[in-house]
Amino acid sequence: METNLDWFFYEREAREKGFSAVCGIDEAGRGPLAGPVCAAAVILPLGCEIPGLNDSKKLTEKKREALFDVIREKALAYGIGWGTVEEIDRVNILQATFLAMGRAVEALGVPADYALIDGNRMPPLPIPGETIVKGDAKSASVAAASILAKVSRDRVLRQLDQEHPEYGFGKHKGYGTKAHYQAIKAYGLLPEHRRSFLKNLEEK
């Protein structure tokens, strides 16, 4: 954890407003061409020390995997939620992300009464909350949620890589790399590919 940053500023602010179970929420997988979108919600004890905690994008895969277990151990509660490929194609990626966030909150073992959401769009949740732009680099609970969501989704894509090694999911995790587009061209689309993201495939 960055020592010069007040990692629990937003959590304490919410506490001062009278909320007692503040969860951080973040997602992983909004941009890829394949696989579900994943969201996580995490309630941390106020002032909880998790060495190395940071925005998941700034961490190596190995470090995220190690922190995944530490976060689950130290959190008061955590929940993982998913938006399926079918939902992404049917209602769009933003709405599917909101569904995943709602499911993550529902999956919390301890009911949250306030949410800190990474980004600038507030999902429809059964509890009040606020959005924080770059929240995964400013709030401990949002950073923790970003790691749980990223690791959970990466594990799904690694499993998909086992089933379809020719697509290279283990490396690109479903993102639109040159190698991924070449694999789609060579082998066609899988059920796990987001059709709504690949409408202009002929132009690639």
Report on the architecture of this protein.
The chain has helices spanning 9-16, 61-74, 85-91, 93-106, 140-163, 169-172, 178-187, and strands at 22-28, 37-43, 77-83, 114-118, 129-132. It is an alpha/beta fold and 204 residues long. Helix 2 (61-74) packs across helix 5.
End-to-end Cα distance = 41 Å
Note the overall shape.
globular
N-to-C SSE series?
HEEHEHHEEHHH
The share of residues in extended strands comes to 5-15%
Please mark out the parts with pLDDT under 50 across 5 or more consecutive residues, or reply none.
none
How would a crystallographer describe the biggest sheet? Answer: 5 strands, mixed
Mean pLDDT: 95
Work out the number of β strands: 5
Q: Output the structural class.
A: alpha/beta
Proportion of helical residues: 25-40%
User: What order do the strands of the largest sheet run in, or round the barrel if closed?
Assistant: 3-2-1-4-5
Overall radius of gyration: 17 Å
Number of helices: 7
Catalytic activity: Endonucleolytic cleavage to 5'-phosphomonoester
Binding site for a divalent metal cation: 26-27, 118
EC number: 3.1.26.4
Protein name: Ribonuclease HII
